[in-house]
């Protein structure tokens, strides 16, 4: 049995809270963040001007904390809270973070003395929490911090999972830029099914072109010194809003695609093989001479896609491995392939001809056949 984790991130703008709550959140959480930084660097800490339970939680959860890099001068520990959940009539034991699903609210304690800050949960957040609880996940700890005018609360769920014994199926996932999509194939000695998943490219290009047009207008105003006029401020707000729409769309698409692929692997008990050479995808976009900003948009959240995918596979006990599956080398004779228009690859030696996204899958199929013949 191994322990796996998944995390729900709750984000709220500070402006929705009262003046007292905003001031307390900024002061207390920033202070706890500073103490956590000192604690991670090996100092003994005393929380003189804030609740002493913050220092206690640092020590209590020290084995569960996963620091990005403990050697960094600023270690991202943040304020640590214990967590409780009420599904029906469970007793509130005064935890730092208490999730009440009978009222769909979250109570954040220890920030203001003798009372909790109430945060309403969205339907998607409630659904996520219920799904994790139904999968035998338990809330382990919560971290809270303030940044850029927002309150963030990250709730980590823990689950003991026994890795599944993989079947003969292999789910091969070739990670490309969003322009060319995420190619996948379910193989079992042969290709059972395959597909290519990619977001709405027209929508992405529309948002990118709109941002570019607005940035040109804003740049002209800035050169003339008029960027702080009401019209200039309106342009800047529209630029930020359009960028947020693009980021939110790709982020949402990434999460849905990860869930789809993880469920497919779980359904067939398939071992997952991931080819994630993103530099090759970036070079391919550069060769197409796309605008630099658009090329960056097509690479957004791909690393997040890989992280979320491996995290969900570990949560369900699905085995996976990273393997280099070349797309420019012939899987039949090993010769270098020639690229034709339309991302079609052709071997000048043996005559193999296939789409570039199919070549890595053919390599995975070849590896499976060789592995099945070994004693």
Describe the protein's architecture and organization.
This protein is an alpha+beta fold and about 375 residues long. Among the domains are: about 1-160, no CATH class; about 170-200 and about 250-325, Nucleotidyltransferase, domain 5 (2-Layer Sandwich). Helices cover about 40% and strands about 25% of the residues. The chain contains 9 helices and 16 strands. The protein has helices spanning about 20-40, 55-60, 125-135, 200-225, 230-270, 280-285, 290-300, 300-315, 360-375, and strands at about 1-15, 80, 85, 95-100, 105-110, 115-120, 140-145, 150-160, 170-175, 180-185, 190-195, 270-275, 320, 340, 345, 355. Helix 4 packs antiparallel against helix 5 and helix 5 packs parallel to helix 8 (about 300-315). The longest helix is centred in the middle third of the chain and has 39 residues, at about 230-270. It is globular. The chain starts with a strand and ends with a helix.
**Low-pLDDT windows of residues:** none
- What's the arrangement of strands in the largest beta sheet? 11-10-9-12-13
Q: What integer value in Å does the Rg equal? A: 25 Å
By DSSP, the count of extended strands is 16
* Euclidean distance between termini CA atoms: 28 Å
Share in helix? 40-55%
Strand proportion: 25-35%
Number of alpha- plus pi-helical segments: 9
The 3D shape can be described as globular
Largest sheet: 5 strands, mixed
SSE sequence, one letter per element? EHHEEEEEHEEEEEHHEHHHEEEEH
* SSE-based structural type: alpha+beta
Indicate the mean pLDDT. 88
